[in-house]
Amino acid sequence: MALSGYRQHLWPMLGARIELILRGMSAQVNENQRGHPSPGKGAPGGPPRQHAERMHSNVLYWPRSGCIFRHHVLAERLSFRLSAGWPRRANLGSPSTRARGGDERLNSRFEGISRRAFVRNSASLLGGAYLCALHLAPAGHAERPPAAQAAAGAPDEVEQMIQYMGAQPVIRQQLRRNIFVLSGPGGNIGLLTGPDGSVVVDSGLEVAHERILAAVAGEGAGAPQLLINTHLHFDHTGGNLSFHAAGARILAQDNVRARLSMPYTMFLYQHTFPPLPPAALPTVTFASSTRIYANGEQLEIVGVPPAHTDGDAFVHFTDSDVIQTGDLLFNGFYPLVDMSAGGRMQGLIAAADKILEIAGPKTILIPGHGPVGATADLRAFRNMMATVTERLTKRIAAGDPNKAIVADRPTSDFDARWGGGFMKPDQFVTMACDVIRMNH
C-alpha cells in the first residue's frame, strides 16, 4: 500500500513525537544551564523572556563542534523531511525546505513505500532523534556556544564593563551649530539643543545618569523634551528612567519597547537583564521610520532590518548633515552582533549600505562606540564586515568547526585596526561564526 493512504495520520504523529524529543532535550539544556548561574545583572543585549524561551526551545548547540542548529536543521541532519503535519509555529522561521511545492515533492518521493517500510524507517528516525538528544545534552551538563563559554569564565564581565564605562568622564563636543555628542559612560549620546527643548539620542548608563543629565542641560540647553533610543542595549537605554523623570518622551522602534518590557538574556555573556520599569519604556514607537522637526532641524529616524539587533534605527539630522548610527557602527572596533536579539552579520552590512546611500563627503557620523567619524570610516567598517562574513561563511559551509576557524586567524589582516576594543579577534570570530550558523 502506498504511503499516501495513511501518511496523513501517521506522519504528523511522527513529526510531533520527534519534536517532543528535541524540545525535551532543549528543556533539559535549559534546566542544566540553570545550574550554571550567570554572574551579576545587566549587559548589552539579549532577548526578552519570550525571545529567550524561543531561542532555548528551538536552538541546539552541537557540543563537539560549536555548531548551532534549529530543530528543522537538525531534522535535516537526521535525513527526514516533514510534510504539512509538522506543527507550524511562527518562531521556527521559514526554511527553504518548506518552500512551495514541498509537500508535492515529498509525496512523489515516497510513492510506493510500503506500510512496513514506513513504520521501520519511522522507528529509525525516532531512535536517531533520541540518540542525538542524548549526545547533545548529556545528563547534568549543558554545552554553551564557544563565545559564551569564554565569557562565562570571567568574573562578572558585564559588571566590570559597567563599572569601567561608568567611571569615564562625560565629554561634551560640539559638532555643528546646535548638535553635540556626549561621550564617555556608555554608548555615544547625541544632543540637539534649542528653544523647543533638547532632543537626546540614547541615554547612556544608569550609573552615570546624573552626570549625563547635567551635561545635557549644560550651557543653558534646557530640559530634555525627547529621548530617542537607537536600540535596546543597557549602555544606550540605562538612563531612560531619569530622562522620563526630567520630562522627556521616549521614542524607539517597536521591537525596542517589546524587548525592554521583558526579561532579556544575552547569550554571549550569559547575562539576564530584568525588564525596565514602565516609566523607562518608549512611549512613542514606529515600525520602519518617522520624522521629527525640532530646534530648526529635520530629524529622520530610520529603522533597519535585523542588524546589530532587531530593533536598530539611525538618526539623520538632515539640515546639519550629521548621522547618529547607534551600534550600526563601531568606529575602530570589532562590533557586537547580538544574536540573542535577532542580530545578523549580513544585516549589519546592509544597514551600513543604507547609511552610505545617504552619507556624503562632508557627513559627520556619531557611532555607537568610538570616536566621531566620517563616511570613509563607515565604508571601511562595512568592507571589513563583508570580507569577514564571506570568509567565515565559506569555512562554515565546508563543515569547519569554530575552533579550527579561530585557530587560522581569519581576521589577522584587520586586527590591527579593529581588534583593540572589548571584542577581541578570537571572540569576534567565534561570535560571528555562531551568528552565521544561527541564520544559515
Q: Which short descriptors sum up this protein?
A:
single chain, 440 residues, alpha+beta, Metallo-beta-lactamase, Chain A, 2 domains, 7-stranded mixed sheet, 6-stranded mixed sheet, 16 helices, 17 strands, 41% helix, globular, disordered N terminus
Concise account of the structure shown:
By secondary structure, this protein is of the alpha+beta class.
Structure description:
The longest helix has 27 residues, at 7-33. With 440 residues, the protein is α+β, with helices and mostly antiparallel strands. 41% of the residues lie in helices and 18% in strands. The chain has helices at 7-33, 49-58, 71-77, 102-110, 115-136, 146-152, 157-166, 209-216, 234-237, 240-245, 254-260, 345-358, 375-397, 402-407, 415-418, 425-439; strands at 59-62, 67-70, 171-176, 179-183, 189-192, 198-201, 224-228, 249-253, 264-266, 271-273, 284-286, 289-294, 297-303, 313-317, 322-330, 364-369, 373-374. The protein has 2 domains: 3-143, no CATH class; 157-439, Ribonuclease Z/Hydroxyacylglutathione hydrolase-like (Metallo-beta-lactamase, Chain A, 4-Layer Sandwich), CATH 3.60.15.10. Helix 1 runs parallel beside helix 5 and helix 13 (375-397) packs across helix 16. It contains 16 helices and 17 strands. The protein starts with 6 loop residues before the first helix and ends with a helix. The protein has a 7-stranded mixed beta sheet. It has a 6-stranded mixed beta sheet with strand order 12-13-14-15-16-17, with helices on one face.
